[in-house]
Design a protein that fits this description.
- The complex is a heterodimer of chains A (831) and B (229).
- Chain A is 59% helix and 16% strand.
- Chain A has 29 helices and 21 strands.
- In chain A, strands 12, 13, 14, 15, 16, 17, 18, 19, 20 and 21 form a ten-stranded mixed beta sheet that branches. In chain A, strands 3-4-8-5-7-6 form a six-stranded mixed β-barrel.
- The radius of gyration of chain A is 33 Å and the shape is elongated.
- Chain B is α/β, with parallel strands linked by helices and 229 residues long.
- Chain B contains seven helices and ten strands.
- A six-stranded mixed beta sheet of chain B has the order 6-7-8-3-9-10.
- The radius of gyration of chain B is 17 Å and the shape is globular.
- The relative contact order of chain B is 0.20.
- The chains are: A alpha+beta (831), B alpha/beta (229).
- Chains A and B meet through helix 16, helix 25 and helix 29 of A and helix 2 and helix 3 of B.
Chain lengths: 831, 229
């Protein structure tokens, strides 16, 4: 074993030490790939896992939970407590409040504190303070202090009656106080039930279902968490896939590094084989070299990934909050599983990508030791065969793109994308040959002899060039495709907002809102605003977070007549005028596109909702385009909802100003009309700007991931050019003998970098455009259910591609410096 | 033998290298004068300083002491750009292992020095020099499609394409069999006599020595003897 290790040191570690920059670049490329995957994994767990912590605060170890749309009647808890079973029943009101001083959103839990305190005067005492609350340790207030909380549309002072031992930043108050603060009207959000273990949970669930009113759901405690997790699965899955791009690019570069290593050492391998080394030994040695890069990359990647996760978690939490569910990020935890994941992907990627060149090394015949000089890096490429294969792969990609999702995941969409990348990799050698053949003379005329030499040299080492172009093209393609998808999505959302947001002013409570949080305005606010001079109409919209078929969704209710008159809502299915005419006349609903796709609901189908103590079927009149969140909406007429849930408080208002009235004047009057309430009044322009800001923030992480992939590829180009300079040092020396100046040698290397960048840009743009179609029409549609209109974000793409191109050329600067510093006399006499 | 003005003059030239921390004296106090159109053979054992002398004469390197005057220009007064210009205009190189660029055709290889010097019309001179070495019919071929002798003739055409005063040849027939080597030597001799190009040729072969006008024997960096044939 020791002699083998010594040989490994002599033949592999020593050369690595001789080229520290190149070794470092390859290691760093692997490290970045590992870091990105790890960062997304850690940040995803922290950001998505956190929703459990907020409303699950202080739940104890309950077995079952009882919920209902619009709440559960308070009597239900009392009825359960009276059942002849030894059940523990905990009634809860759950919402969010905002600490007025800091703007921090905190979970607000209402619990029956009086009932639990009745047995002790000590416990009852704090409850006698004015508006008593207990706060979590993170809020760090002292007992007796006053905290001003904004709840729905009002801000009120509360007295800190005690500090909780757990509960993070939660605020706990007595049920009655919470009911008053949130205007619940005697309805609870959740009843937690702990059952004895005398019989199965299912049995207890059945018994309790008999005892609760219809329209109320009894489920295992934690069902809501599971629903949220299921809802977030597609988001996390797609992000995870995106994070693997940098690793794929890193794999290309490991392949290139080991290939170069094999080519350089063919004579050495021949000698070793002649001296008795086995094929297996050679294979193992080269795989060992790759594994070293994998181990070093994983170690560095672990540290980098942990660091990057800190930044990523904030970005992810914002997206989760905006599109899915209330969330405050949990701390990042680097577990042993994460460490193992880092090593598995680092070493696994390195070994997998190095296998082909390592195998090639093991095939070197001992007679090659007799060959004089260095064997040129000859590409054993079969361009014709590869082109046919590329066409077949592209066709297969087309076929895969038409397949439906598997268990809600667009697996065939990913397969189609992979097949397209493989097709491009196979077609790239032909592209490189064709483009350089056509451009060689042209380059000489326009950029001089150095450009012509650069182009010839790239063709001469076609395989190496193709791998490099493939790596950078893959990174560019992913960036282009995601750029096109996000740009198209942004444009689609902007157009959608034009149709959807027609009102002049929007009014909502200042209390914290999110995709699953809908604080309400006091019931008299709409009438006050409607009475303002200059206001033509007010649309009252109510939103309630619900669960539908095991997934979170939103039930909404608006005023059909107002919508019919003012909105330009667009429908995929159903005729607009007829929908708005029919909607208020009975149990009808319209659903949003994400809801329709997620639950397979079409026009004419029925959605079943438990409202007001009984279950009802609502006929779907149409499916409308909606991009506000991914949970999906079921929208009824306001009158229909009030029939079942007689709670008139709206979640937000759309105010239409009469023609001829000054918007700012009317806004001032509206503000005066709601004085004393904590409400936000925003103009149409502001709400659109806010929406676009949220949109851009949501996709910032995807751009960050693309940027890392491109960085890895550009580093690869720098490393590969350095290898190219080292391998062709005699040629560089010869050029100096033939009269080339140092500047001309520098220009030659920069031209090679520029040509590589150009070829990669052309290939990347073509592949990226094709991939964007798969992203928009297959992966997005199957994962999220949104229809996105195709749009070329020319300015963004142009800018990004220019930056990449310039970076690629700049990546040639260091290798060019090395080339100009070579001593021509020394290198020309090397043999 | 033509009487000529000194084209190349070395005045008390020494060249030291530092190799692995030790000072190596490659050339010591070498003085030599060569006229236009003379063919000079540099002979001596490996490591005696032949290649170093060629590099100094070709403005590829500076002497540690002494002066190298090429066509009247003291090379030590020039910077990198000046040396490059001098090489482009005045010097051609031929190597033992031909050193043709495998990615270029024969014609493109020959054109290369002129293109590097920024001459746009390199084709005419390149074809003329290929005809001089009788390789014009194979101008479109790539180096790997030629024999060793043919490759060396192309290398000579490349070294002559910009009509230099001085041609430096390092073991030009070292990789060739005797018949092919004689053919190459004949071309070099004709080049010196008919084109008045001064040729400095490092060699081990007796044929080369007998073909030269002057034979300079080097030993341990010193000029041991200078013999005129």
């Amino acid at each position: 074993m020791i002699p083998l290790l010594r040989l490994f040191y002599q033949f592999f570690l020593r050369p690595m030490k001789r080229e520290p920059v190149r070794t470092a670049l390859t290691t760093f490329a692997v490290a970045l790939g590992v870091a990105v995957v790890l960062a997304i994994d850690l940040a995803g767990t922290a950001a998505a896992g956190s929703f459990r912590a907020s409303l699950e605060t202080l739940t104890g170890k309950a077995d079952l939970e009882i919920t209902g749309i619009g709440g559960v009647p308070a009597e239900t808890a009392a009825k359960l407590a009276r059942l002849p079973y030894p059940l523990t029943v905990a009634a809860r009101i759950e919402d969010y409040a905002m600490v007025a001083a800091t703007g921090e959103t905190v979970p607000l839990i209402g619990m029956d504190l009086i009932a639990t305190a009745l047995d002790s005067e000590d416990k009852l005492e704090p409850l006698r303070s004015p508006r008593p609350i207990w706060v979590g340790p993170r809020l760090a207030h002292r007992k007796g202090e006053t905290i001003r909380l904004t709840i729905n549309d009002h801000s009120t002072d509360y007295t800190v009656a005690g500090i909780l031992k757990e509960g993070d930043n939660a605020v706990v108050m007595d049920l009655a106080l919470a009911d008053e603060a949130l205007s619940r009207g005697g309805r609870l959000d959740r009843i937690l039930v702990t059952v004895p273990d005398t019989t199965s949970i299912e049995e207890w669930q059945a018994r309790i279902e008999h005892a609760v009113p219809p329209g109320v759901t009894v489920a295992r405690q934690g069902a809501r968490t599971d629903e949220n997790r299921r809802m977030l699965a597609a988001f996390r899955w797609n992000l995870r896939v995106l994070s693997y791009i940098a690793l794929v690019v890193g794999a290309f570069l490991i392949y290139n590094t080991i290939s170069v290593s094999v080519v350089r050492r063919r004579p050495e391998i021949g000698i070793l084989r002649a001296l008795g080394a086995t094929r297996g030994g050679v294979l193992a040695a080269f795989l060992g070299e790759a594994a070293l890069f994998g181990v070093a990359g994983a170690l560095l990647g672990l540290a980098l990934g942990r660091l990057m996760a800190e930044g990523a978690v904030q970005m992810l939490a914002t997206t989760v909050q905006a599109l899915y569910v209330s969330s405050t990020p949990a701390p990042i935890q680097l577990t042993w599983v994460s460490v193992l994941l880092a090593f598995a992907i680092g070493i696994g990627t390195a070994l997998a990508s190095a296998f082909a060149p390592a195998r090639e090394a093991s095939q070197v015949a001992p007679t090659e030791a007799m060959a004089r000089g260095r064997v040129e890096y000859q590409a054993r490429l079969h361009r014709g065969r590869d082109l046919v294969l590329a066409s077949l792969f592209a066709l297969a990609a087309g076929g895969a793109a038409t397949r439906p999702p598997v268990a809600g995941k667009p697996l065939f969409g990913y397969l189609a994308a992979l097949l397209l990348i493989a097709a491009a990799a196979l077609a790239i050698p032909s592209l490189v040959s064709a483009l350089t053949a056509v451009s060689s003379r042209l380059l000489q005329k326009t950029l001089g002899v150095e450009a012509m030499l650069a182009s010839r040299s790239l063709v001469a080492s076609l395989r190496r060039t193709s791998v490099l172009v493939g790596a950078l093209a893959t990174a560019i393609a992913m960036m282009t495709s995601v750029g096109i998808m996000v740009g198209s999505f942004r444009q689609t959302v902007a157009l959608w907002m034009d149709n959807q947001l027609r009102a002049d002013l929007f009014v909502r409570p200042a209390g914290p809102a999110a995709a699953d949080r809908h604080p309400q305005l006091a019931a008299d606010v709409p009438d006050k605003i409607a009475a303002v001079q200059g206001v033509e109409a007010v649309d009252r919209f109510r939103a309630i977070a619900i669960s539908y078929e095991g997934l979170p969704a939103t039930l909404g209710a608006g005023e059909s007549q107002v919508l019919a008159r003012y909105s330009k809502m667009r429908f995929l299915e159903g005729e607009r005028d007829s929908i708005f005419r029919t909607l208020p006349t009975g149990d009808y609903a319209v659903v949003s596109e994400p809801f329709a796709n997620k639950h397979g609901v079409r026009k004419g189908d029925h959605v079943k909702l438990a409202l007001g103590g009984s279950a009802h079927q609502f006929e779907v009149l149409g499916v409308y385009y909606d991009y506000s969140n991914e949970r999906g909406f079921v929208v009824l007429d306001r009158g229909t909802l009030l029939k079942y849930l007689p709670d008139p408080a709206p979640s937000n208002l759309a105010v239409f100003v009469k023609a001829g009235f000054d918007l700012e004047t009317v806004r001032g009057r509206v503000e005066a009309a709601v004085a004393g309430r904590s409400v936000l009044i925003v103009s149409n322009r502001t709400i659109r700007a806010e929406a676009i800001k949220i949109f851009d923030r949501t996709f910032a992480i995807t751009y960050a991931l693309e940027a890392v992939a491109v960085l890895v590829a550009v580093m690869g180009i720098a490393g590969a050019l350095l290898a190219l300079v080292i391998d062709r040092r005699r040629e560089m020396g010869l050029l100096r003998f033939l009269g080339a100046s140092a500047g001309q040698v520098r220009k030659l290397i920069l031209c090679e970098a520029g040509l590589l960048g150009l070829l990669a840009n052309v290939a990347g743009l073509a592949l990226g455009s094709a991939l964007s179609l798969i992203l928009i029409y297959v992966i997005n549609k199957q994962s999220f259910g949104w229809t996105i209109q195709f749009h070329w974000p020319v300015a963004v793409l142009g800018g990004a591609l220019t930056v990449i191109y310039v970076s690629t050329v700049l990546a040639g600067l260091y290798p060019a410096r090395v080339a100009t510093r070579l001593n021509p006399i020394e290198v020309i006499h090397e043999e | 033998m033509p009487e000529s003005l000194p084209l190349l003059r070395l005045d008390a030239v020494s060249k030291d290298y530092v190799s692995n921390g030790e000072r190596v004296h490659a050339l010591r106090d070498v003085s030599l004068t060569v006229g236009a159109g003379e063919l000079v053979a540099l002979v001596g054992r490996s490591g005696c300083g032949k290649s170093t002398l060629l590099n100094l004469a070709g403005a590829m390197d500076f002497p540690s002491s002494g002066r190298v005057l090429l066509n009247g220009t003291d090379t030590s007064t020039l910077g990198d750009a000046g040396l490059t210009k001098l090489r482009r205009e005045s010097v051609g190189f031929v190597f033992q292992s031909f050193q043709l660029l495998p990615t270029l055709t024969v014609l493109e290889n020959v054109e290369l020095p002129m293109l590097l010097a920024g001459h746009p019309d390199a084709r005419g001179p390149a074809m003329e020099k290929l005809a001089w070495v009788e390789m014009d019919s194979l101008a479109a071929r790539f180096p790997h499609q030629l024999s060793g002798g043919q490759q060396q003739r192309v290398a000579i055409a490349r070294a002559l394409v910009h009509s230099p005063f001085l041609l430096l040849a390092d073991e030009p027939i070292g990789n060739l069999d005797s018949i092919t080597g004689n053919l190459v030597l004949d071309i070099l001799r004709r080049t010196a006599s008919e084109r008045r190009v001064t040729i400095l040729m490092a060699t081990h072969s007796a044929e080369s020595t007998s073909a030269a006008d002057i034979v300079v024997r080097l030993r341990d960096g010193h000029v041991e003897t200078v013999t005129r044939n």
